[in-house]
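User: structure tokens for this one?
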Amino acid sequence: MPVRPFLLVALALGVAAAPSAQRVLPYPVMPPPQFERAVAQGTRTLAGAPGPAYWTNRADYALDARLDMPAAGADDGVTVTASGAITYTNESPDALEFLVLKLRQNVHAPGVPRNRPVAVTGGLDLGIVAIDGAPYADVSVAETPGTYRGSAEPGTYVVQGTVMTVGLTDPLGPGETAVIELDWRFTVPPASGTYRQGTDGEVVYLGYWYPTVAVYDDVYGWHVDPYLGMGEHYMEMGDFSVSLDAPADMLVYGTGRLTNADQVYTERTRDRLARALASDEVVQVVTADERGTALAPSADGRRVWRFQADDVRDVALSASAATVWDATRAMVDQDDDGAADDAVLINAFYRPGTASWERSAEFSAFSIEHLSETLWPYPWPHMTAVEGVISGGMEYPMMTLIGGDRTDPTLFSVTYHEIAHMWYPMMVGSNEKAFTWMDEGLTSYNTNEGIDAFWDGSAPDRSEIDAWDRRRQSHYLLAGTGHAVPPMRHNDRYPIGGGTRQVDPAGGSARGVASYSTPAVALHALRGLVGDEAFVDAYREYGRRWRGGHPYPYDLFNTFEDRLGQDLDWFWTPTFFETWTVDHAISAVTASEGGVEVLVADRGLAPMPVLARATYADGTTRDGRIEVAEWLAGKTEAALTFPAGDVARVELNPDGFVFDADPTNDVWSADGVEPDAME
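Assistant:
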């Protein structure tokens, strides 16, 4: 994205340099000075790849937890009591005087700032906090978290809502490690007052259940944004050793590899799991009648489950005595030998009778295989879907929580979407809070591609669905209405809406449109403009470069420009930094001996190549194109010429790639119907 002089003139004047055009042109993408400094220091490059000096810090966790269910008739809630040791490695060139931890469960504490309603259950009750064996003192003087604005002196820590600042007694130098020891307790929030984890009384899903070290990166240093409920997370990679002590009747699963299967499962359960890994059929590991008999005997009414997860950024755990268990496998090329012959265990835990969930394992297996083929192979031992607690879906490494009765297409869609998050942001670790579109937008694009691939009409239970039909894309609900908000906005700074639909028709939809749909339709458009092969090459290269790292939007933009060999500021700026819309319109169609001239007006602010198709009376078609350079030169009208002949119809954007906000002016017909009247 080099700075072009004519664009700088346009930026300064607000109009095109050509005096006859008077057209506003996109300004260049301008990274913040912190990013430019990272490029200068060699941690990033203008080509979009990590620089030779790139680094990321690392946090490895050893966590032990106990889950207690309330006694029958009691109202004291589900509780977790836990302890852990975090080994934090400073790979940066900086000496760190402080450590920053995130206490995400504190979003449920009284007095904590929030931007969506939650149940107030008390948050995280911290006990011991020690660094390298030395106890640290809590100097948070406020009665409730989130209101103290003091300082953490050496040997102390301060809790402010969901952010904990630790003042180190000795700075943590480059290459050094610190061991953070903590213990804590919390009440698991009820389903009626949570949205990404919690309990509905039968299913317990533990997310946000332990303190995490915040990201310290090469661009901004510590990322201290509080968790307010809406914006999600930015996390370091690490290895996790986890144990959960749970009631003996509860079937538990979690991120990572179960290391004590012989101790918790019966021989029958282990045999069925082996059969699932050896077959493409769905195996009922635990049926409704077998609940309570799939686990090894317990002498004390408790059972400890142990998981080991490597190179992940988070862990989640599920526990329930009410679910059945289906399993199958997905075949991927994990060992990079060119053959998809490595089996990934696919699990589905759900309550009997939940609509469409008997196909959950099928949908998950397809998702893993399809994403592994289109992006790169899934690297972990299992992918597990758990039903319950929430109304939508939520992703964690190797685990997803999906709620509610659904139809087959809607369960497939949310399953594919949450599994696609295993690539973004679970492998490519972007900042979900600051740049939500980098994971949700890319995942939404992938989901539409997955819907098209699965719902292809190839079988009675795979009826055809056009995922890119504009009626399915919420981008068009707000495009050009004045209610849209750019994707390049911090997740916690979107309007949340107020009032009913009668007085607030946009409501809080701006965040979802900007973060999910708009980036997805933009990527789809780019694919149509540059071609499948070039787009897929650039898209995969971005993921390959940043797997295990922390890319910023400018890394994605630069990677695409590097691989495509094009300056695409004209594409990025209007859609990602602004809410400019595309609106191509057929102004006139004129036939002569020299050919058929189609005059196209560009009525929108966002410049975009014009893709057009002429259909002749004999049914033959010819495609034409107006390059974006015409609009960047200041024009608002341009012409393209098709071969002479009896043209019956001219259509702009015939394959639906260009996200034209007003398609009613995209068609001309020889029958005399005015272009603007066409649907």
